[in-house]
Amino acid sequence: MRLHAEGMIEDGSGADDYAFNSDCKWLITAPPGKVVRLWFDRFDTEARTDMLYFFNGEGTNPASMMAIFSGPDIPPELRTWSNRVLVWFLADGSNQHAGWRMHYRFENP
């Protein structure tokens, strides 16, 4: 999914646990000259298995990886170094958890 306005992303489960075998990507694009600030108010995934990846830019090149999060703890705030960030959520077929919700805003570098 491509996003061009400030807002919120979540795993899509609402009050339920997230779906088995999730594989979802969001590309957030801020206006030129801006960066993206991201923060969580909810986070609970299967530790070391169901992962939320962040890549600076459009692709999943390991060199552009900013962070990987999993487990029950709220991750730290992130800030990109460009105007694009790719968010990728991958979950396997066992042990669902409550999921996550993340907010993002466009800011000056």
Automatic annotation (TrEMBL):
Query: CDD domains recorded for this chain?
Result: CUB (cd00041)
What is the species listed in this Swiss-Prot or TrEMBL entry? Marinobacterium nitratireducens
UniProt name for this protein: CUB domain-containing protein
Q: Which UniProt keywords apply?
A: Disulfide bond, Repeat
Top-down, what is the taxonomic lineage of the species of origin?
Bacteria, Pseudomonadati, Pseudomonadota, Gammaproteobacteria, Oceanospirillales
State whether keyword Repeat applies.
yes
State if Repeat is listed as a keyword. Answer: yes
Q: State a single Pfam family of this protein.
A: CUB
Q: Which PROSITE patterns match?
A: CUB
InterPro entries in alphabetical order:
CUB_dom, Sperma_CUB_dom_sf
Residue ranges of domain CUB in the record: 1-107
> What Gene3D superfamilies does the annotation carry?
Spermadhesin, CUB domain
Xref: SMART domains: CUB (SM00042)
